[in-house]
Amino acid sequence: MKRSEINAAIAATTAFFRDHQFVLPSFAYWTYERWSELGAGSEEFYKRKLGWDVTDFASGRFHEIGLTLFSLRNGAGEGSDAYPVYAEKILHVREGQVTPLHFHYHKMEDLINRGGPGTGNLAIEVYPSTDAGELADTPVTLLSDGVYRQVRAGETFLLHHGESVTMPPRIYHSFHAVNGPCLIGEVSSRNDDASDNHFYEAIPRFPAIEEDAPPLRLLCAEYPDTTHGIQNR
């Protein structure tokens, strides 16, 4: 993915959040120079992978297959007694832009449509998985706003404004926005994109970046730390 595409995605998402009254923390606007000045002060951001995340899942077609996220909080990892043990993200899901079919080995997450007027509904497709990671054809029972609902394997259902669903581990899900872009919250157990994602089709979670422009914002895997300096995916 080109850095210029990532810059454009972050600029568009920043405006989308602002237009729909979702206020980002101050570190969402820090520059490369600000991160460099922090030095050891960036260690917790780096360990927790907080901040911007833009991916096209190495598709080369970001507006068709891709996602823009901002991680607001997250646990520090296994063996750490540092709080929190939960995670929160905010997602900008563009209309018609698909996040490919995947599950999480350990993470349980709530997906919440936090949008209002001018935003769309989130269409979610689900399948149970077999022990071997294949698609099963049995129904899935999901908790949605305090009510259990049974969903057929491969069925797509909608989250309207204010609605949410709990996605247990090892349940395949894919989603995209309909009737407008979506403002989606995610509240979950600790997030670990390095080892907890399984995509039905073998694709990378993070794309390689072609540096055709200076970064508008660093991504969450690129912060300086005290050992490695600026990180590159």
| CATH homologous superfamily title | Jelly Rolls
> Which value, in Å, is the CA radius of gyration?
17 Å
What is the strand content? 25-35%
**For the report, how would you describe the main beta sheet?**
6 strands, antiparallel
As residue ranges, the low-confidence spans are 226-233
- Could you report the average pLDDT, rounded to the nearest whole number? 92
Number of domains: 1
Report the principal-axis shape.
globular
Order of helices and strands: HHHEEEEEEEEEEEEE
CATH class: Mainly Beta
Structural class: mainly beta
CATH topology: Jelly Rolls
How far apart lie the N and C ends? 11 Å
Explain how this protein is built.
The protein has 233 residues and is mainly β. It has a single domain, classed as Jelly Rolls. The protein is 13% helix and 33% strand. The chain is built from three helices and 13 strands, in the order H-H-H-E-E-E-E-E-E-E-E-E-E-E-E-E. The protein has a six-stranded antiparallel sheet, covered by helices on one side. Strand 7 and strand 8 form a beta hairpin. The N and C termini lie close together (11 Å).
